[in-house]
Amino acid sequence: MSWASLRDLLSGVNKYSTGIGRIWVAVVFLFRLLVYVAAAENIWKYEREDFECNIKQPGCENVCFDHFFPVSHIRLWALQIIMVSTPSLLVVFHIAYRENREKHHNRKLYKSPGGIDGGLLCTYLISLILKIGFEIVFLVLFYKLYNGFKIPRLVKCDRRPCPNTVDCYISKPTEKMIFLYFLVATSCLCIVLNLSELSYLVCKYSMKCYLKRYIKKHQ
């Protein structure tokens, strides 16, 4: 999936989202996708070449880099953006199914194909739960892979074939730390927005069902 395709997907989802959902789309597009493409990608572009150890033992530097950076931050961030955005495809596909069904029967079957009700409500809630799940999984993954949300200036490595403990230096640690904190902050913000939208929809339609039952009971 290209970034242009992801942008088009988010734009399409925006038409059928609630107010909170539109804020989520704006956060993903402005504070995650654009920041990634415009700035963050360049910061980690030469992370392997700029990783230096104070020893010339063949293979030592490669092993140390692989140990401390098992997965590139920037690639993991890109994967996170894609994974938290793709559950929205469920909503788009469901709406497309409704529109095709109306065309096939040549009559109006729904009040609005993009209206969040009935089966589409379930699909929408499932997509929100998946987004929250992916966000949490990736935050835990970042924390486990890199021993916390930090970028040290100096790391000590004693992995073979290093003959002893060697010092290795990471380039631009402060700049990378700032973007890592930004990544964590936007992830947490997206989790809060998704939880808020989930709660809003559940409360709204629970109240709606309760009012329907109440009116039927008193009729």
From TrEMBL:
GO cellular component: connexin complex
Domain spans labelled Connexin cysteine-rich: 134-201
GO biological process: cell-cell signaling
GO molecular function list: gap junction channel activity
The entry's keywords: Cell junction, Cell membrane, Gap junction, Membrane, Transmembrane, Transmembrane helix
Domain Connexin N-terminal: 42-75
Membrane topology, record value: Multi-pass membrane protein
Residues passing through the membrane, by range: 21-39, 77-97, 118-143, 178-203
SMART domains: CNX (SM00037), Connexin_CCC (SM01089)
PROSITE patterns: CONNEXINS_2
UniProt main location, coarse: other
Cellular localisation: Cell junction, Gap junction; Cell membrane
Family affiliation: Belongs to the connexin family.
Subunit text: A connexon is composed of a hexamer of connexins.
Function: One gap junction consists of a cluster of closely packed pairs of transmembrane channels, the connexons, through which materials of low MW diffuse from one cell to a neighboring cell.
UniProt name for this protein: Gap junction protein
Organism: Anseranas semipalmata (Magpie goose)
Lineage: Eukaryota, Metazoa, Chordata, Craniata, Vertebrata
Gene: Gjb7
